[in-house]
């Protein structure tokens, strides 16, 4: 299969990404605002008219630029263009890595109109590519369809993505009444996203501060969160902080939430460490062993398995695990596992001469 055909789903957005990067360069160079807007309009018109005239997202972005400047003829023309392309499917870029937006948030607002849903679909496409300013313009155009709490969740997340968090940021407090009637009712979901967004922002401002952990930790008390992978990043951050603080039972509780494919290995390792330091060695061995099934070499995991088997008197198994830990002789183990090795009483261990 020719390379150009194989990657056509990605190649068609390269020009849009280059256009966006040029726009960001203009902003960073502190050029005159009129000059920046003029350059952007020229680039967008060329993209829409010449490069990809059948791609609705370009026309929607151009529409938003015209709307910002209240240029009615341009608005009417671009609206006519994208409305005649509503039957065009958004190309799904199959090989694109999971975006920062999907990792940190991936919130889906409730939209009532077909236009609102269509704009959000385009907005999500731009978010996956990291074109946050363009995505914000589309979001601002449908903001009146959203509830106040939904606006906060998306707006605060966009500020974080754009690195525009103000020095003084007052996070919203979850205020919707939680329900016990279903596994994960909408009010619970919205409250959970408020906690997640607040935690993400506080973590960005100071990852060592405990304010972020207060928000992340609150997720554990909302019914149904454990079955939704969108909250796993925040919960895993909380779990590993509790592990660092030696609040092992709380860490173990949090690690139970890492269930999706993307985070299982991270959750297994963390859960195994919590069990290890709780001296529940047999259980720790199970989860360390599970974390070796993900087609990646984790030297520290194999080292922990060696230590556990030594402590359990399984010297042959310990030796086999140590061989895997030392597959790369240049590997440097974490201080944590080195400390555990130092604690071992060599005189009480039974070694067999080769």
Automatic annotation (TrEMBL):
Keywords attached to this entry: Repeat, TPR repeat
Protein name, entry field: Tetratricopeptide repeat protein
Gene3D superfamilies assigned: Tetratricopeptide repeat domain
Gene Ontology CC annotation, any one: extracellular exosome
A Gene Ontology biological process term: cilium movement
Organism in which the protein naturally occurs: Glossina morsitans morsitans
């Amino acid at each position: 299969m020719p390379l150009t055909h194989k990657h056509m789903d990605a190649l068609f957005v390269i020009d849009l990404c280059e256009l966006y990067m040029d726009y960001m360069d203009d902003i960073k160079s502190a050029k005159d605002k009129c000059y920046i807007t003029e350059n952007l309009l020229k680039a967008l018109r060329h993209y829409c008219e010449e490069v990809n005239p059948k791609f609705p997202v370009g026309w929607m972005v151009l529409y938003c630029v015209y709307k910002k400047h209240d240029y009615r003829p341009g608005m009417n023309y671009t609206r006519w263009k994208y409305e005649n392309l509503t039957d065009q499917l958004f190309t799904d870029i199959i090989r694109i890595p999971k975006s920062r937006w999907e990792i940190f948030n991936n919130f889906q607002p409730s939209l009532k109109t077909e236009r609102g849903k269509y704009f959000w679909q385009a907005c999500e496409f731009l978010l996956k590519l990291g074109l946050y300013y363009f995505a914000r313009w589309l979001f601002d155009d449908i903001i009146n369809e959203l509830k106040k709490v939904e606006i906060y969740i998306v707006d605060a997340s966009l500020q974080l993505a754009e690195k525009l968090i103000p020095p003084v940021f007052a996070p919203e407090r979850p205020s919707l009444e939680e329900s016990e009637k279903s596994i994960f009712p909408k009010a619970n979901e919205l409250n959970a996203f408020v906690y997640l967004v607040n935690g993400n922002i506080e973590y960005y401002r100071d990852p060592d501060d405990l304010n972020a952990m207060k928000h992340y930790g609150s997720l554990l008390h909302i019914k149904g969160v454990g079955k939704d992978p969108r909250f796993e990043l925040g919960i895993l951050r909380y779990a590993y902080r509790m592990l660092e603080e030696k609040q092992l039972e709380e860490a173990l509780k949090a690690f139970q939430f890492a269930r999706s494919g993307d985070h299982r290995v991270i959750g297994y390792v963390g859960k195994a460490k919590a069990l290890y330091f709780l001296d529940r060695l047999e259980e720790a061995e199970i989860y360390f062993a599970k974390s070796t099934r993900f087609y990646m070499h984790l030297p520290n995991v194999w080292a922990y398995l060696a230590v556990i088997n030594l402590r359990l008197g399984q010297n042959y198994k310990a030796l086999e695990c140590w061989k895997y830990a030392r597959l790369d002789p240049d590997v440097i183990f974490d201080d944590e596992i080195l400390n555990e090795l130092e604690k071992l009483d060599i005189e009480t261990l039974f070694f067999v001469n080769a």
